[in-house]
Each structure stands twice: as structure tokens, then as C-alpha cells.
Amino acid sequence: MKSAPDVLAIVGPVTQFGSGHLRRMELLQSRLSLDGIHMTLLIDDTGWSEVPHGVRVVLLDRRDTMFPPAALLRRDCTLIAVDNLGAGAEQADVRYAALPNISMSVTEIRRSLGQIILPSEITTRPNLCEQAQLIRIKRGVPRADLVLHPYRERLSRKSFLKRLIKADSVACYYGQTLFEALYLGKKIFLYNISPLHGLLADKFFQVWQGLLYPRLYFDGRGLERLAALVKQAIRDGLPDPKV
User: pLDDT at position 1, please?
Assistant: First the structure.
């Protein structure tokens, strides 16, 4: 087994940044391993002084934060910022939008739908997003077969996906679960947990309602697209920054 990684992914602690960032980098790690590419996850970069020799790509999937100084010193590495609207986006060679964000235009949101990273437990099933019912809830937490609550202990990811697949209705806030439920064609109650989440939900709801054929944009191949971008960077060096 190769000891030195080809790719280094930097994520933050789940208690501070949520579990979505870590989960999608774990999905990318598994996907790249199928092509013999070794990727290492770094959750805490405190005291971290250098990029391991042999690393060709450094991904930062830690919301709106900066790349560690050591990554900036290695100019033979491609720096990819995932869902970053902060300093990391300016430092990166490439920016990858894995979720629609508040700064995007309608056209950019439509494009980003094809970059959303979903697990194989979801994407190996039929894409039923055009059958999904998206209902915007401004106040309170609605009742549903499955309710995602940020302040309660969560199920394991495997158990959660099983419940999500079986549920007819889902109550969730703006984030990864919303898009998993959309792909599965669920009845979704989209509620608020913060002013920012409310703004994101409002903007996305308007765009989604205006899509005549959502499957043309939301095809579930975001993981393949990010993996292809990473492989291109390893093979050819710096890729086209317009991603």
C-alpha cells in the first residue's frame, strides 16, 4: 500500500463545522481509492507545519476558512476550495461549489446542482427529483416521518440513510439532507434553523420552483465530477480555474 498520499483534504471538527463537510470528503476518499489514488483527511491542522511529500492536490472543505500556511508554500500543489466564500476562495487555484450558496445567481445555482456530492446509497437509486414536493416552512419545526434536528443526537450515517430512503416525508433545514431527499423524490418540509439558513432556503426554493426539468441540472454526478477534477490536477497540474 502506498504510504504517502496523493491528495490531502482539510476539514474542520464536526462540532464546529457540522458533519456534511467530513462526510463528502470521505465519499471522495472512497471514490478516488477505486482509481488507486491515496487521499488523507486532516481534521485538525493545529501545529501542522508541512504538506507531506508527494501530495499533488490539497482540498479545503472547511467553510469560509483559509488554507494553512504550509499549503500555500507548496506551489507544486493544486489548491481546491470547496464551498468557500472566505479567504480560502481567493487563495485557491480552483473553487468548487458543492452546494448552492447565497451569493450565486440563478444560472450559477442551476449549474451547481450538478456538482452536489451524494452517496452511492442515494445515486444507485432512480433519480426521482421531479416527483419531489418541496414545501417552505417559515416558522417552527414541522412533523414528518423523518425530522432532521441540528441540536439532537443523530443516528449513524448508515442508519440515517436507511430511514431517509424509507420515509415518505422529511423535515430538514438547508443542507446536504435536503438534496438527498430531493433526489429520492420525497415530500420535504424545508424549515429554518438560523437567519442564514432561512435566506439560503428562500433563494433555493424560488430557483427550484422555476425549474421545468430539474433532472437536467440535478443528475447526482457531483462526486464523479469532483473526482475527475482531482484526477486531472494530479495528471496535468493546475486545471482550468473556471469550475
Answer: 44
Rounded-to-integer distance, Cα 173 and Cα 141, Å: 9
Does position 22 have pLDDT exceeding 90, yes or no?
no
State the Cα–Cα distance between residues 20 and 177, nearest whole angstrom. Answer: 9
Beta bridge partners of 8: 40, 58
- The model's confidence at residue 191, banded by pLDDT at 50, 70 and 90, is very high
Q: Give the domains, in start order, of the chain with CATH numbers.
A: 7-101+222-236 (3.40.50.2300), 119-216 (no CATH)
Q: Is the pLDDT of residue 132 over 60?
A: yes
> What's the whole-model pTM score?
0.88
Average pLDDT, the chain: 89
For CA atoms 111, 112, 113, 117, the dihedral sign is positive
Angle at 223 between CA 4 and CA 131, to 5 degrees: 160
CA 74 – CA 218 distance, rounded (Å): 35
Distance in angstroms (rounded) separating the CA atoms of residues 189 and 138:
10
Question: Measured between alpha carbons, how far is 63 from 17 in angstroms, rounded to an integer?
Answer: 7
Rounded to an integer, what distance in angstroms lies between the CA atom of residue 192 and that of residue 138?
Answer: 6
Q: Where in the chain does DSSP place strands (E)?
A: 7-11, 39-42, 57-61, 78-82, 94-96, 133-136, 146-147, 169-172, 187-190
